[in-house]
Amino acid sequence: MKDLDALIASMRPELQPGVYVFASLPHDAPLTGAGIVATFREREGLTVVMEEEAAKAAGIAPLFRAAWITLTVQSDLDAVGLTAAFARALGEAGISCNVMAAAYHDHIFVPADDATRAMNALLALQHRH
């Protein structure tokens, strides 16, 4: 789907259970996959997003504690404006967001303590469209 108004009206944010952390590991760090939901290779190291309990068990220091919200609408990777719309709504609520677009859905990571406020801001945006 590419139509911005239709995307926003049907984005259906869903809060995933648990707390997730962003961490940076050396490029050669062994990864078992336990609790890892995303990785991104940067020049400085391997960024991982993983379940907080799995990070604790592995002795991995978190850089950021987050709640994970999935927009369950299936959006095209080349759709224009959706990220800007929800980032603006969260920004107006004073909530930072880290966004990952996957093949079928957008995933938003917000500060763990702001999960409820973030969901309310996203639902309000959805209902305005």
Automatic annotation (TrEMBL):
InterPro entries: ACT-like_dom_sf (IPR045865), CASTOR_ACT_dom (IPR027795), DUF2241 (IPR018717). The keyword S-adenosyl-L-methionine does not apply. Gene3D superfamilies: VC0802-like. Keywords: Transferase. It comes from the Bacteria. The keyword Transmembrane helix does not apply. Residues 2-65 form the DUF2241 domain. GO terms for molecular function: transferase activity. It holds the Pfam family ACT_7. Residues 67-122 form the CASTOR ACT domain. PANTHER family: BLR5128 PROTEIN. This is Acetyltransferase. It comes from Caballeronia concitans.
